[in-house]
Each structure stands twice: as C-alpha cells, then as structure tokens.
Amino acid sequence: MTPETETPETPSRRKPLIALVGRPNVGKSTLYNALTRSRDSLVSDTPGLTRDRNYGEAKLADLPCRIVDTGGLLREEEEQIDRRVDKQARAAVAEADVVVFVVDGRDGLTAVDDAIASELRRSQKPVILAVNKTDFADPDLILADFYALGIPDTLAIAAEHRRGLQQLTQRIVARLLETPDAALFGEADEAENQEEGIALAVIGRPNAGKSTLLNRLIGEERLVASPVAGTTRDAIAIPYEDAQGDRFTLIDTAGIRRKARVNDKIEKFSIVKTLDAIERANVVILMLDAHEGVSEQDAHLLGEITRRGRALIIAINKWDHLNDEQRQAIRSQFERKLHFVDYAEVFYISALHGSNIRQLLPAVKKVYRAAMAELSTNKLTEALQTAYRRHQPPLVQGYSIKLQYAHQGGRNPPHIIIHGTRTTNVPDSYTTYLSKFFRKQFKLHGTPIRISYRDKANPYANE
After folding, report:
1. Which residues, other chains included, contact 352 with Cβ-Cβ below 8 Å and sequence gap of 6+?
2. Where are the alpha helices (DSSP H) in 353-450?
3. Containing H/E element for 128?
4. Beta bridge partners of 20
5. Res 434 pLDDT > 80
6. Which strand (E) or helix (H) includes residue 68?
7. Choice between 1 and 53, residue whose per-residue pLDDT is larger
8. 371, exposed or middle or buried, with CB in 10 Å at 0-12, 13-18, 19+?
9. pLDDT in tens, 243-274
C-alpha cells in the first residue's frame, strides 16, 4: 500500500503587533488613541499615567494590526512600581513585530532616550523613531538632534493634531512587510475573529487586589500589581482562553474611592472608565477586602452593578491569616450588609496566595449562562401561575390583581414581561417575590432578574 502523504498544516494568519515605547509623558497614549481611533488610553500631562500594557485594534493602510500602549521606560525614580512598569514595556517589545520609539521634540534628545535606543538595538526588533510634539517649530531642525540615535526610520509627528500619522503608518507597514512573518499578516483566522467571549470586569476600592487576582487567573504577571493604592489607573482589557477553550475578555479597572476624596482629574477619568467597564461587562467580580469590611463605597459600587443589571460574583479577598473567630465575624457582617444582592455568588479568597481562585472562572461561566438564558413563554407562564397560586398580590380597592402570562423581553440580565390587569398596582415586595421565585425555578444563580408589567387594555375605559 502506498503510504498516505501528509498535507502540511497551513500556518495561521494573524494580526501584526506594533508596540509604542518611550520615556514617560512623550505622547504614547495620544498616539495610541490616534492610531486606534479610540479613547481607550487615558491621556494627561501627568507623567507615568500608563502602567499596564493596553492593546487595541487598528487598520494601517488597510492592514489589520494590533497596537500596544506601554508605560514609560527607564523612569528616573527607581521605585519598585517603576521596575514593574519597565517589565511590562519590555514584554511588549519582546512580542512586537515593529517597535515605534516615541520621543518628545520639545524636550530634545535626553540621556534616557539614548539609553532606551541602546536597549531597543539589543532587542533586534525593527524600530521606527517618531519624534512627537513637533508642531511648534521647523520639524527638520527638531529632527537634527535625534539623528544621533542612528535610527534610519526617523520622522516628525504631532499625535495630538494627527500630523505626520499617514507617513508614520506607511513606514510601519513597510517595515512589517520586510519581516520574516510578513506572509502571515492579514485578517486573523475565523477562530480569532469570533466573539471575544465572556466580558468579565473586576472592580473594587483601591488596593483590594484586583490586578493580583487577574494575574493569578491568567497565570502571568500581565498587570502591574503593587501594595501602593491606585496603581491601576485605566481599564485594561485582556483576551484570555482557559484550559477548556472558553474565551474571556478580562477587564482590570482602577480602584474607586469615595467621591468626596476624588479631586484629581485623572482619578475622575478612571472612575468613568470603571463605570464604562461595568456597562460593557457580562459578569462583574466585586473585590472586597476582608480586613476592611463593607464600606459605603462598596455599597455604591454594588448599586452601580445592580442598576446596570450585571451578573455578580463577590470575591472577599485577603482571607488568609484570619483566625476562625475573625472569619465568623466577617461572614456575619457581609451577610448582614449584602442581603440586597442575595443572588450573588460569594467566594472567600486570597489573590496573593491563590486560595480558592480555581473556583472563580467556573462560577463566572455559570452566572454568565444564567444571565444569557433563553426562557420559553410556556415555561415562564407556568412558573408565573404557580407563583400566583402560592401567593397572590394584595387587593386593590377590593379588586384582585390578575397576572395572566409572561414572556422574555431580553437577556443580560433576563427580562421577564408579565401581562395582566391592574398590574400598575403590583407592590415592589411582590415583584421581589416573583424575582426570587423565577430565579429558583430556572436556576438563574448570580444574575438579577428584571420584571416589568403590561396592563391588559380595558375596552370600556373611555365610556
């Protein structure tokens, strides 16, 4: 028999990755927003605002690409957090196909720029030098300083005003097409183009352990985690696929303090980004600190989550090193203060040491399925009639409220529309009863249920 010839596997196509690097406050995030045509990266005059790698999609001269914004390299302060930001930026360079080295034309060439250029040369990656903020004088005069770095692809841009971006885009694409992987660039495979999976946002007060938890979940130091409160300032989205092949978009967010303490403009923008992340999410993990208890701010965050109807998991962090008496007292406090979100899944964890972390993603999938459940009209109506027989709403001026049938009006969260007569008089307590009944009947754990009513038209109302 003739042996079967094996067909060589076709390499997967992928989107090329362009990393934006440079020292703090040279305009990397402004350039990132310009290239991705978004406002995904926070922009401010404050140096060192970006700390984590922030990925976005772009189309450069019709070539689909991914852009990664990074924190400032080689900061002058040698604090622990700065070393971690450096590590994130270097990781972006290591995985990039082309590096755009951004410098500040107003400041001229600095010793830090020279040191970064030397480091990039050692990486052996294709490098383009983008001299930013060149709209104040003759660009040719500004560029003269930077030719000393010896980078052939050097050009002037003004990211804030979108000047020079077309030329920069052409240079990036030209360098990409010269790389060994150029044949693989283009639209990604169908699997990569599928939905981003479950959008999971992790929120909480500063220093609750959000970044540490996400690093634990994905198994790498993907986010800058530090004991310093307020380390994360932006909402960072991370694509992730678990061992079962289920896809997630994990969203790390800035910690939110009480409004009275928020004076900083950057922190106000961070709060907006966190609220946007809740809106975007399918499931939210609220991180609480076991040592701090439930604060007014935690209750406010819970209110924002419930108002948007998001499936909820509460992770009570820093559970290690507590004795049994302390744990019992904390459990009692949380049960008392969180009674209004009794549908939420609650886990006691240690993000730092990994205790009970493995239970979280299966729970996320479970509550996501509940939030996205499709409920048939027949089963909903049967459940409504059962609930009505067991406990009827109070009379209204001697007349009973009739609830006749129900159907689903939406998902994420499940929205149940109930039709009947005198439904405008259904008290909130009865709606709460129905919500709990439906949740138990259809096993909708971890998600709120929205209920609205439609009154049957009275043909004699105008007579």
Report:
1. 209, 212, 318, 320
2. 360-371, 377-390, 428-442
3. strand 127-132
4. 69, 100
5. yes
6. strand 63-69
7. 53
8. buried
9. 898 999 888 776 665 554 444 554 555 677 77
**Residue 404: exposure state from Cβ atoms within 10 A (0-12, 13-18, ≥19):** middle
Query: How far is the CA of 370 from the CAs of 116, 397, 404, in angstroms?
Result: 50, 38, 25
Label residue 151 left, alpha or beta by phi (over 0 means left) and psi (-120 to 50 means alpha): beta
Tokens of 394: 């109070």
- What stretch of H or E contains 93? helix 80-95
Band of the pLDDT at 4, cuts 50, 70, 90?
A: very low
Q: pLDDT at residue 225 above 50?
A: no
Contact (CB, 8 A) for 200 and 285: yes
- What span, in angstroms and rounded, lies between the C-alpha atoms of 339 and 32? 43
Q: Which amino acid is at 341?
A: V
Q: At what angle do helices 428-442 and 377-390 cross, to 10 degrees?
A: 130
Cβ distance 40 to 212 under 8 Å?
Answer: no
Rounded Cα distance, 130 and 164, in Å? 9
Between CA 278 and CA 254 the distance in angstroms is 12
Q: Are 384 and 418 in contact (CB under 8 A)?
A: yes
- Asked if residues 88 and 96 have their Cβ atoms less than 8 Å apart, the reply is no
The four Cα atoms 59, 60, 63, 64 give a dihedral, to 10 degrees, of -30
DSSP code per residue over 276-308: HHHHH-SEEEEEEETTT---HHHHHHHHHHHHT
In order, the DSSP letters of 36-54 are HTS--S---SSTT---S-E
Asked if residue 389 has pLDDT above 90, the reply is yes
* pLDDT value for 214: 84
Torsion of CA 175, 179, 183, 188, to 10 degrees: -70
The pLDDT, as a whole number, for residue 11 is 56
Residues 45/133, Cβ–Cβ less than 8 Å: no
CA–CA separation, 212 vs 80, rounded Å? 15
- pLDDT tens digits along 333-372: 888 888 888 899 899 998 888 888 889 999 999 999 999 9
Q: What is the DSSP string of 214-275?
A: HHHHHTS--S---SSTT---S-EEEEEE-TT--EEEEEE------GGG---HHHHHHHHHHH
Q: Which helix (H) or strand (E) holds 168?
A: helix 165-177
Say if CB 89 and CB 21 are below 8 A apart: yes
How far apart (Å, rounded) are the C-alpha atoms in residues 45 and 27? 9
